[in-house]
Structures are given as structure tokens and as C-alpha cells.
Amino acid sequence: MERVAVTEEAAELIRSLTGTHGPVMFHQSGGCCDGSSPMCYPQGEFRTGDSDIHLGDLDVGLERAVPVWMSRSQFEYWSHTHLTIDVVKGRGAGFSLEAPEGRRFLIRSRLMEE
């Protein structure tokens, strides 16, 4: 069952960021403010572990799929939702790779379908 998807506009930005930074990954934490936004990191720079769940991989038209992770505690709240990574104009968190681009990733969610 697919849990995560990406819009074409977000996929375009991911391809651009990958061209600059190499392979990337996403992690969705459960913090407040920008901590609740999907964070884009160079692959391997954010360490995942037993407290994280691999939601799936995004096909953005690159050789490698882009993995998406979520903290286990956040997944308890969002386990019934399908998530789509999108992008909008504006400044996001300083730690996410898109921050200097004047755009920020965000999550759009809907209930999972059978």
C-alpha cells in the first residue's frame, strides 16, 4: 500500500536539489512550527534508527528513489493517512535543503483508502 507520494512541482525541486547536493532523503518529525514540515537532507546526513519508520520511496524521475521516513511517535498519529509532499513559496526551516530556494516543502494528507 502506497503511503507517500509527491507532486510534480515538488519532484522538480527534488531533482534540482539532487543535482546540487547528491541523493536526498526526507524525514517527517513531529515537532512544532517547521518541525512538523518534511525535512529534506542529503541522503545519510540524517541518521534513522529504531525510532523511525520508512514510509516509502518517491519516484521523481531519477536513477534512485527518494526515501521518506517518519518518527515512530508521529506515525502513531498519522498511520491512517496518505501523505503527499508538495512545495509552496516561502521560507521553511533552515536545516532543510530547500530553505535558500525561497520555497518550502509541506505535507498534504488524506485518509487512506482501502
Radius of gyration: 13 Å
The strand line-up of the biggest sheet is 3-2-5-4
Overall form: globular
User: How many H/I helices?
Assistant: 2
Summarize the biggest pleated sheet. 4 strands, mixed
Spans of at least 5 consecutive residues whose pLDDT stays below 50 are none
Mean pLDDT: 90
How big a fraction of the residues is strand? Answer: 35-45%
The tally of strands reads: 7
How much helix, percentage-wise, in residues?
A: 10-25%
Describe this structure in words.
By secondary structure, the protein is an alpha/beta fold. The protein is 18% helix and 39% strand. The protein has 2 helices and 7 strands. A 4-stranded mixed beta sheet has the order 3-2-5-4.
List the defining traits of the structure above.
single chain, 114 residues, alpha/beta, three-stranded mixed beta sheet, 18% helix, globular
Ordered list of secondary-structure elements with their pairings:
Blueprint lengths: L3 E3 L1 H14 L2 E5 L9 E5 L9 E7 L7 E6 H7 L2 E9 L13 E9 L3
Parallel strand pairs: 1-6, 2-5
Antiparallel strand pairs: 2-3, 4-5, 6-7
